[in-house]
Amino acid sequence: MGKYIFVIGGVMSGVGKGTSSAAMGKILQDRGYNVTAIKVDPYINVDAGTMNPVEHGEVFVTDDGDETDQDIGIYERFLNTNIYKENYMTTGRVYLSVIERERALGYKGKCVEVVPHVPEEIVRRIRHATKRAKAEITLIEIGGTVGEYQNILFLEAARMMHLASPKDVLFALVSYLPIPDKIGEMKTKPTQHAARTLNSAGINPDFVIARSSRPLDEPRKRKISLFCAVEKEDIISAPDADTVYEVPIIFEKQKLAERILAKFGLEPKKQKPKDWARLVQTIKSVKKPVRIGVIGKYFSTGSFVLSDVYISVLEAIKHACWHHKVKPEILWMNSEEFEKDPKKIKDLAKLEGVIIPGGFGTRGIEGKVEAIRHARENNIPYLGLCYGMQCAVIEFARNVAGLSAANTTEIDPKAKYPVIHIMDEQKDKVDDKDYGGTMRLGAYPCVLHPDSLSRKAYGAKTISERHRHRYEFNNAYRDILTEKGLMIAGRSPDRRLVEIIELPNHPFFVATQFHPEFKSRPLHPHPLFREFIAAALRGDKNNKKK
Ligand code: GLN
Known about the structure:
Elements: E1 3-9, H1 17-29, E2 35-41, H2 53-56, E3 60-61, E4 67-68, H3 70-79, E5 88-90, H4 91-103, H5 114-133, E6 137-145, H6 152-164, E7 169-176, H7 189-200, E8 207-212, H8 218-228, E9 235-239, H9 247-253, H10 256-264, H11 275-285, E10 289-296, E11 300-301, E12 304-305, H12 311-323, E13 327-334, H13 335-340, E14 353-356, H14 365-377, E15 382-385, H15 387-399, E16 406-408, E17 417-422, H16 424-431, E18 440-448, H17 453-458, E19 462-469, E20 471-473, H18 478-483, E21 487-491, E22 498-502, E23 509-512, H19 527-537
Parallel strand pairs: 1-6, 1-7, 2-5, 2-6, 7-8, 8-9, 10-13, 10-14, 14-15, 15-23, 16-17
Antiparallel strand pairs: 3-4, 11-12, 17-20, 18-19, 18-21, 21-22, 22-23
This protein binds glutamine (GLN).
């Protein structure tokens, strides 16, 4: 049957339920258990791929090509394992299966009802994911907060699983404890209400993860224990941490792994490893800064600046920096600013490296192309990711190969020099408005050029990386661009699709059609990010390549 921990949010969202789930998984994995984690998003969208990034944050892509919530990325980074399609669930996805099964007479003539058939489908999916991952312990993070209309059916599924096997199912309530400025005291009342609301769904929490800006004190622990009917030792203080990677250590100090295993009737299978604690030590002690600019466009919502859209890029930069024992200093730059005020491009001079991540559509593209020109001409290490690769090809075509009207057909379908164009298999999908889950998605192999920087970085001839795109390098321009000095550093095994370009006469100019950021892990930085940061540290922009 396996063991299951449902992680449910109280009071408000966005307080680190994903990190808490991943950290719980990590400490159990460190005791020798095979752990997996599932994310439930209660919205109707079948996946995260069709949502506006500003609204939803990053779309994380799995090896098997699912477009998921960024929490799946958090699980992969903490658990250092690949997570698959089965581990991501939305209301849309669940209903779609129920309806398709009904159409195929799968319910054998029964009246198909919201309850129990929808929660049953949810349970079926949870068990299926557990089986595929061969997990002994499965965490299931239910998106949103308790009391929301949308997640009731998921809570019902959790209740049903607990009823069927009470010793195998636990519940953790991740709740927020505000400290209002004017009162200056941490308040437990909203958490008490959250626990009551959870009770009305037939669930009592086994653990309360108390998120707050400060640690929880004894009187408040007692209060939560009494009113939420949770043992005092199972109320875990989770104050804001310097880094999310510290959360497993904060949990360890409060013996959370031991408490969970005891409730499941399990023994630790091994001593906990020390490498994670060493990583956190490094994160807290690094001082020498390295300044990396990330140039994108999905930053602002009203008067707030978001970096969630690029969370995997951000984490990949950090992992590489910690590997080199330096402190990442990341500057978010909106490429539209370079269009509004071209003088602002000079701001790039203060950077040691430039990254242009993935993106879609026209807005901000000319600013990106200008930023790439600046990085190329001034020998600033450049790493382009997906759209950042396509923009680099456009820039090179325009400013080095003299094809001044070069563009991608995503922006200008009638471009005179369409150096980036739609992939053959994508044409019909776009024409038919068949957008959901139809990009070129997930892991594909790529063969590296023997003389490329990428080949050296990876230390392998063939690699596998994750994709999410509809457009590609137009091979009709391959000869003219390579004659001018562009290197095709990586291609699909059939040699048709350009996966990596490099500029050999630049200290570090590498741009990929795929998204390396999805595969970077805290203790295993991605080779391209690692070498990019190495180049930034060498100060390559000041030392032109000989
Ligand atoms: N818009 C580009 C394409 O569809 C790049 C996509 C991306 O950056 N993820 O090919």
